[in-house]
Amino acid sequence: MSNPFSLEGRTAVVTGANTGIGQAVAVALAGAGAKIAAVGRSTMNETMERINDESRFHAIHADLSVTTNLAPVIDEAVEWGGGVDILVNNAGIIRRNAALDFTEDDWDAVLDTNLKSVFFLSQAAARHMKARGGGRIVNIASLLSFQGGIRIASYTASKSGLAGLTRLLACEWAPLGINVNAVAPGYVVTNNTEALRNDPVRYNAILDRIPAGHWAKPEDIAGAVVYLASDAASYVHGVVLPVDGGWLAR
Ligand code: NAD
Question: What is the best residue among 188, 214, 241 to mutate for testing ligand 1's pocket, by most ligand atoms within 8 Å of CB?
Answer without folding.
Answer: 188
